[in-house]
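Here is a tokenized protein:
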Amino acid sequence: MSNQTQEKQESKWRSRELGALWVRSGKNQKYLSGSINIETMPGVTENIKVVVFTNKNREKNEKAPDYVLYRSEDQEQKTDTDLAATASQAAKEVSSETPQPSLNQDSDIPEELF
């Protein structure tokens, strides 16, 4: 593959990139931590820090998601243990509900996660 073709492919992927995640180790589980860039208005991009946890209650509901993405809270306020506990509680709530066909499910997410 030529350098020009490779650069063109990298550029194509780079233009579609939304963010990046890193594997972290908490006290009870591994999780992903990073940030995503969301275009909130034309030409205005907001960088949002996020964490991703596996849905431990997936076995109870086959329609439940495998992973759950949360907006990260300030690390000075929350420890890994607090994040894992919050994620575990939210995962229980998510897995106990039947997913709605609508793409906008903000009302299903506990207010404490916003």
Q: What stands out?
A: Residues 19-96 form one domain. The mean pLDDT is 77.
